[in-house]
Write a structure and sequence with these properties.
Jelly Rolls; 5-stranded antiparallel beta sheet; 51% strand
């Protein structure tokens, strides 16, 4: 077992393999950003989820006062420079209260009975994060969580 930093002092015990290396928690929820009012773009802390292939990202907007909206982005980190690159951005901004769920998983496809906001065929990088871009300086109250998947 080892401890994994989740968000500003929140730690989670994570199982390891026989060598003590971390393995995917498989649908263990991670709070990336707690519920709060925000007016500017914000990136979640970087995540390292070895062994995981994909993730469901949940953005829960509880109050929206503007029209610019929030756009979820999936970013990966260059291990050499530490720079972050956006690999995917949601096709529609969130402008009203509600729950948005994004599935990012290699080979994933939309289909009948699938109720995700958006499904994207992309693998989960070793180091990743979610960036929430804003369309204006209006106040939005929201949280961001994730469910890494095997």
């Amino acid at each position: 077992m080892h401890k994994e930093l989740l968000y500003q002092g929140q730690w989670r015990e994570q199982a390891g393999d026989s060598l003590g290396n971390p393995v995917c928690g498989g649908n263990t929820p991670i709070t990336l950003l707690p519920l709060a009012a925000r007016t500017a773009a914000i990136a979640t802390p970087g995540q390292s989820t070895p062994g995981c292939r994909g993730v469901t990202v949940v953005v829960n907007v509880t109050a929206a006062s503007g029209t610019g909206g929030l756009t979820a982005q999936y970013q990966v980190q260059d291990p050499v420079s530490g720079s972050w690159k956006t690999l995917w951005a949601a096709t529609a901004a969130l402008t009203a209260p509600g729950l948005a769920m994004y599935l990012l998983y290699p080979g994933a496809a939309s289909g009948a009975g699938i109720s995700y906001t958006q499904v994207v065929s992309v693998p989960l990088s070793f180091n990743w994060r979610v960036n929430i871009a804003v369309g204006d300086a209006s106040s939005y109250t929201y949280s961001v969580s994730a469910y890494p998947m095997l």
